[in-house]
Amino acid sequence: MIHQPVLLKEVLKIFDPKPNQNFIDATLGEGSHSIEILKRTAPKGKILGIEFDPVLIKEAKKNFKKFNLEKRVIFVNDNFSNLEKIIKENKFFDFEGILFDLGISRWHFKKSKRGFSFQKNEILDLRINPKKQKLKAIEILNLWSKSEIEKILKEFGEIKKAREIAEEIVLQRKIKPIISTFDLIKVLEKFSKFLKRKNQRIHFATKVFMALRIAINQEIENLEKGLTEAFKVLKPSKKLIVISFHSLEDRVVKNFFKKLKQKKLAKILTKKPIVPDLKEIQKNPSARSAKLRAIEIQ
After folding, report:
1. Is the backbone of residue 7 left (phi > 0), alpha (psi -120 to 50) or beta?
2. What residues does each domain of the chain span?
3. CA separation for the pair 225, 260 (Å, rounded)
4. Interval 35-76: pLDDT, tens
5. How far apart are the first and last CA of the chain?
6. Inter-helix orientation angle 181-188/206-217, to 10°
7. Contact 153/145 with Cβ under 8 angstroms?
8. Considering the entire predicted model, what is its pTM?
9. Which of 12, 38, 75, 151 is deepest in the core (most CB within 10 A)?
10. Assigned fold of 8-108+219-297
11. Cis peptide upstream of residue 17 (ω within 30 degrees of 0)
């Protein structure tokens, strides 16, 4: 079953896909947004679909096949930070817009077995592409210095007690290596009331797992590069949509769009970020932190 795409109505409204138009999905995932776009761009509209996870891109191909849409997708297993190169290699120059749906997919939590979900006892890997990436979460947690771990927690998790948590990690790993998701949760339990704000439904370990994931996959650095490349390849009147899921990502997108507007290089289509309504959050709880921003190139 393909997961429910976040803010789909809003994406379709901004892109307004027409028959035979082409689009770029820079974060293909399971293909949920692109499937809906392709339904509206028949008979000849194409998607250049970029997905960094080599296993997930195979899953996406199966999903497109279910709808007989696979022939209208160019599948690329690469990082969107290489967007300009990917476009040139595939000679995909005529397109109406680019979509970035950031973060990781539901598939990573449910099926990847790489430690993204703290509800399952799995090895702490957290790599999106194990074939191309060497550094795993277990190496950071068991081999890196206290100050290096603190920096990750502070910068990418915006965690106030980053120093104390880093100290506890270093202390506990001397007793027993931190190998699995449950090992890390056990270390974090004593900080649960500090890691979870009042009335928040998220698990207390969420920010720590997120910080490690962002560091390992260089998510902020890749996002900054990807946005720059997207702007370089988009022609006037074409659109860029970015859906982010945490404040660090959203800040990068907001500031990038703001600079383009100040230089009169783009028009911001979303004065405030678009967020899911209550109905969508009830159907898809993972959408609750989503924020959509969009620009049109001038």
Report:
1. left
2. 8-108+219-297, 114-217
3. 15
4. 999 999 999 999 999 999 999 999 999 999 999 999 999 999
5. 39
6. 130
7. no
8. 0.95
9. 38
10. Rossmann fold (3.40.50)
11. no
